[in-house]
Structures are given as C-alpha cells and as structure tokens.
Specification:
The structure holds two protein chains of two kinds. Chain A is an all-beta fold. Chain A has no helices and eleven strands. Chain A starts with a strand and ends with a strand. Chain B is 0% helix and 46% strand. Chain B contains no helices and nine strands. Classes of the chains: A mainly beta, B mainly beta. At the A-B interface, strand 4, strand 5, strand 9 and strand 10 of A face strand 3 and strand 4 of B.
Chain lengths: 112, 114
Amino acid sequence: DGGITQSPKYLFRKEGQNVTLSCEQNLNHDAMYWYRQDPGQGLRLIYYSQIVNDFQKGDIAEGYSVSREKKESFPLTVTSAQKNPTAFYLCASSGQESTEAFFGQGTRLTVV
Amino acid sequence: DAKTTQPTSMDCAEGRAANLPCNHSTISGNEYVYWYRQIHSQGPQYIIHGLKNNETNEMASLIITEDRKSSTLILPHATLRDTAVYYCIVRVAPHQTGANNLFFGTGTRLTVIP
C-alpha cells in the first residue's frame, strides 16, 4: 500500500532534549518537505529536499535539522535550540510524475 | 511567502454550493493553482489544480479568471464532511525548476451548517 508515513502520531519530550520525527515514503518521490502547524494557523515550511543528500531551508528552519540519506526517508530533528517546539508537524512528498503533494498524517509533539 | 490571499472563514448551508475565492495577483505564467483541504488534525488532502482552463473532478470544480489573478473553488453540494480548512497555493509543475517550494498560507476555514 503506497503512501507516506509519519511516526509516532503523538510524542512527548522534556524541554532541552532533542527529538527526531520520522517520515518515510514508498512513492518513489524525489521531493520531500517538513511543515509546522500551530493551533489555528496555516502550514509553515521548515525544510525541503529535492533529491538525496540535498536539502534547503524553508521559512522557519532555525532550531531544526534534517538529513536525506535515502530517497525514502527524510527525518526531522527538533533540537533544544527551538524555542517553541510544541506543534503539529507534517511531512509531505511529491514526484515529477505526480501533480500533487502527498501528506502524512502528522506528528503532534508536546514538549513539557 | 504564500503568494495567495483567502478569506479567513466562510459558512455554507448543507446541500448548497460552497464557493471559495482565492487571489493570486502575482502568479507567474508557469505557475499552477492548487487547492488542498485539511480536516482537523489530519494531513492536507489534494483537491484539484489548474493552469488557466477551468477544471472539474469528482470532488470540486476550479474556475480561474482569464487574467489568472484569482480563482474560485466550487463544492457543488456541500456536506457536513466538507467542513475543513481549504488552502489555495500556487506552484510550478513538479517537473519544472523551483517546483519544490510548496508555500501554504492560513487558508479558509469552511463550516458547513446543517
């Protein structure tokens, strides 16, 4: 069953700890994206990657890091430098053959 | 830098047509208009997209003005399940350079009323 999977759905961490959110796709898409969404707000782009071993900063990259070692995977690390990490995080992918972007179901991160 | 402007919220009576406007006055010639919707706490779902011609699929219709500076998404017979936030974005086609900047704004929160 093809798609894009984010895990876990809910994540709790203590303040000051780094945490890594998983995003995997089996759609053979070249491009992958990470967004952050705060309550009542739209999606803000954190990072995106057009190809393996390459990624670009989005609008709000500070306090986040990513890697793209495999085409299928684009993990996001929320570092202790991110001042307000509690949010809903969405991963998406798109390919040259597809006209649309596909989104995962999101990870809700709560930092206490 | 979402490049689109949408009303913050709209209401629509169940069974009636929902018309959601979007302004994209700075759209480039090679940019498409895409619509997505997001039901609470889920990932956004693709609805429809178009370049300059009107488009229709099983979910909705997309009307793009001749100057391409605005568009309207039409849900012909809104149901309670259509209550969601609707995002209008512009982007180049996936195979073109610069295609990978998907910028979303705050969208329109559509509430379908029984």
